[in-house]
């Protein structure tokens, strides 16, 4: 409860920031997209993981405020990147239940000046729970805006292949739990990775292998056909100034 109260003030106090982790094309080692990940530096407790504070925010409308801020900040930061580099923002199920959600996205795009096609919204399977029909309409409006959608943490939620048909997803993110340790002998994860890649291809979607840490994992997911790789093997999430430095160096 104290944490929830602190989180309510965190935005105003400037304790929240965004970090960005590259999604790299293993064929040319270039970052094609960066996932925006929220960071909270609590004045007493230090850095608190979003895995801990996002669920607290999701208990109330607080997630709507944090979500809007994250979206606007990520678009603003992406405006300073090369214009063929995309940005991906995590969006909670609760945000998708707001009828004004597409308007908010359109507003974030126009105030930042980035093209809609540069923005990807990452959603988890939980967005479909409860059978909220209104969500279908919101996805359709976002698609018409030109924004891209990605299915995050695929295979870990209340998985249903039917969900893939519910919205115009461009990308499936294979959850880290299928990637980590996938090269150990007898492991069943390589079969799951191959199956998800084949499924995505058949549906004309891209795949991202998440949480790749080791060279043998990189080799395996690349060989199995993952289009993009995200993980510590390339880079942890970095602050905007670091990202800009890296772009400047690469020029
Ligand atoms: O950065 P880290 O790996 O600790 O993130 C943990 C979790 O928090 C991830 O599941 C990620 O999707 C979620 N998360 C991070 N930033 C945001 C955000 O801005 N909005 C939402 N809804 N979730 C986020
Ligand atoms: O759930 P979601 O995919 O949105 O969140 C991504 C989370 O995974 C972030 O918290 C990020 O910090 C974390 N992450 C990214 N790459 C790696 C990795 O290679 N290893 C581990 N352990 N975590 C990672
Ligand atoms: Mn994500
Ligand atoms: Na994920």
From TrEMBL:
- Start and end of every EAL domain? 1-251
Residues that span the membrane, as ranges:
none
Q: This protein's superkingdom?
A: Bacteria
> What is the name of this protein?
EAL domain-containing protein
Annotated organism of origin: Qipengyuania atrilutea
Q: Which residues of the full protein are shown?
A: 334 to 584 of 727
